[in-house]
Structures are given as structure tokens and as C-alpha cells.
Amino acid sequence: MPLSSEPTQDQFFHRPELATALADQALDTSLGTSGGMFLAAPRRTGKSTFVRQDLVPEFERRNLNVIYVDLWIDKTLNPAIHIANAIRTELAREDGLNLPKDATLADALKALSTASQKKLILVIDEAQHALTTDEGINALFSLKAARDSLNTDPGRYGMQLIATGSNRDKLATLVNGREQAFYGADMVQFPTLGKDYIQWLVARSKLDLDIDLASEVFQSLGSRPEPFRKALSQTRLQGAVNPAQDPNAMLSGLASQGVRDSKTDFLNTVASLPPLQSTLLRELAADSVLGPDVRRLGLFSAAMKARLLVRLEADMGAAHGVSVETPSVQNALDKLREQNFLWRSQRGSYSVEDEQFLEWLTQEEQS
After folding, report:
1. Which is nearest to 311 in space by CA: 356, 269, 361, 352?
2. Can you give the C-alpha Rg of the chain in angstroms?
3. 88 exposed, middle or buried (CB, 10 Å; 0-12, 13-18, 19+)?
4. Residue 65 in contact with residue 90, Cβ under 8 Å?
């Protein structure tokens, strides 16, 4: 299934060896496992680009039927609808394939497998978003039922699930929770872009840069291509204005300034939030450093209310007048979700949405 018109070869940095290795692993059932493959990586580190430009084409080269769905592309739409629409689009490609109105996702996938006579590969980008609604959770169970049937029924061509997520803890919920559809599936940390990417991008920039230094700068930016590309562009522009300047020093300085500016802007935004929203966000960040094995306080518990009051008093004085009762806390959490500061599962757990934001909040907390 083509995702878009074929780009020119040099538009993207390709990782064919990684795509081949992951495709081999996803399709290898020699150990009797077929629970799926879950890839975790921080947002904006190149994961989705790799999936669209390398991994999906690799599966297609193997004559597999690939269905790709991005649950992040429109967060206002129920994740279950995203998944259903992607499957419906693929069904429409098969001439004469009609299903009854009450057909389930499992029915649709079985029919698609039969019609195409190919193994199905369902790729769900930002899969953790499915946990935000009951319908999304139910859709995952439907997908599991379809996968189990397609992989075990005689005459079927099989199905495999590939899921990605921008937060390891959120994605882990899908594979570590016994009540989840894909409990026990394999999860790996997706590798960040390395020195070969830096060499490729520096060559495109036509700047005389030390690759090792450029690699260090890239890592200081969280191995995120976007801010690194911006720093390269600014370096090239400044070099055109003042050719005598050292491009290595410019790149390092501009990248550092970019991080400082972004961090300052974010922290100023947090400081401008209503007091209870800011306080909740910082308390969630403080809890994030405790590690996965430490039991968290409930956000509506008496102990958390006491922590909120301590922080509010420290920030605003004893007469702050801010309510920390359950309705006020719930309203503040809802507002933070609307502004994309927080992520919430349908079961009521909250976490900071972006790992970069979490890093800046914890740095501020520890300073």
C-alpha cells in the first residue's frame, strides 16, 4: 500500500539495514512467538519517518499487504476510527469485496487477507494513543483476535502487528499489563540516528564541519533532527554573512542557544499557567524520576493534596486561596490535557505528554 508518491532518493536519510533487520525479526516465528513488535522512541527523533520511508517499503518489497495508521495525525478523532478507516481504505482497494454493516474489525481483516492472498502487516504509529478511549482499547482486542485467527486457522495467510510509541512507559502499558490485548509482546528501544546520519546531513549542508563535534551537538539536542537541521541552516547563513567565523564554533553555539531558548519558552509557558495546573505538572514531573518500580500517589489522594498545598504555599504564600479538592484537580488536569501537556489513559493514569518537556521540568525541579 503506497503511503504517498515516491520521494526522490535524497529527500530522506534511509536506514535499509535497520529496516531489513526489524522486518526479519517481526516475521520470524521460529520461537513460536507472534505477539507483535513494539518500538519505543522519543518524539521527533525520526521514528515515524523511518517507519514510513524504510520499514513499510521493506514489507511491501516482500509482497506483504501493509496497512499503516498514525493515531497522532488527528488526536481529536477516536483512535478506533483511525484504525477502522485505515482498514476500510485497504478494503476498498479490493474489487468486489463487500462486507455486512455489522462486520467487525476481525471480520474485515480476515476478508482482506483472503482477498489479497497476502500476509497482513498492520503498522500503528503512536499506538499508546489507543489507550485514551474505551473504543480504542476494544479495537486493540479486535486486532488481537484477528491476528490470532489469521495466524492459526488453516488456509489463512497470517498477520503481524508493528506498533510504535513516543514514550516507553506509555507503550510498555500495552505489553506489560496483563489486562491489555498485547500483553507479552516484544518491545525494544528504537535506535536513534547516528554518525552516518550526521555525515549525510553535513555533506548536504556543504559546511566544513568536524563530524565528531557535529555528532556531539546532535546528541546534545536529544538526537532530534529538526533542531539540528535548524542549527545547520543558521550556521550556513551566518557563514555566508561572515565567512571568517569558525563553523564548528557557530554550530555549537547556535545549537546551545536554540535549546536554551526552547527551554526558557516552555518554562515561561508553565509559569504562566494557573497555579494549580502548574503545580500538578511539576508534581507529575517530580514523580517521574522515581523509577518504574515505585508506587505513585493517586492524584486525588490525601497525600497528593498535601503535596500540592506545600508547593502552592511555597510559591504563593499561606494565603494562596487555591483549592486542591477533587473537582478543582480534575478540571486542572483536563485543561492540561487540552493544551497537550498531559497524556491520560482511559483507566485514569496521567503522564507528561512529551519527554522533552519532562526532561526540562525535572531539570528545573533539581536546580
Report:
1. 361
2. 23
3. middle
4. yes
- The β-bridge partners of 186 are 37
Residue 144's nearest CA partner among 35, 56, 40 is: 35
Helices (H) and strands (E) in the chain, counts: 15, 7
Q: State the DSSP string of 208-273.
A: ---HHHHHHHHHHTTT-HHHHHHHHHHHHHHHHH-TTS-HHHHHHHHHHHHHHHHHHHHHHHHHTS
In angstroms, the Cα distances linking 274 to 131, 311, 333, 365 are: 28, 14, 11, 18
- Report helix, strand or coil for 186: strand
For residue 302, give the H/E element and its range: helix 302-316
Nearest to 122 by CA among 172, 43, 56: 56
Across-strand partners of 125? 70
pLDDT band at 153 (very low <50, low <70, confident <90, very high): confident
Q: What is the DSSP code string of 156-174?
A: ---EEEEEEES-HHHHHHH
CA 204 to chain centre: 28
Please, which residues have CB within 8 angstroms of residue 267's CB and are 6 or more apart in sequence? 360, 364
Tens of pLDDT, residue by residue over 43-57, are 889 999 999 999 999
Nearest to 185 by CA among 111, 124, 134, 138: 124
Beta bridge partners of 123: 68, 162
For 4-70, give the DSSP string. SSPPPGGGS---HHHHHHHHHHHH--TTS--S-EEEE--TTSSHHHHIIIIIHHHHHHTT-EEEEEE
pLDDT in tens, 188-235: 899 999 999 999 999 999 999 999 999 999 999 999 999 999 999 999
User: Residue 164's beta-bridge partner residues?
Assistant: 39
Q: Residue 354, Cα to own-chain centre: how many angstroms? A: 9
Specify the DSSP element, H or E, that contains 188. Answer: strand 186-189
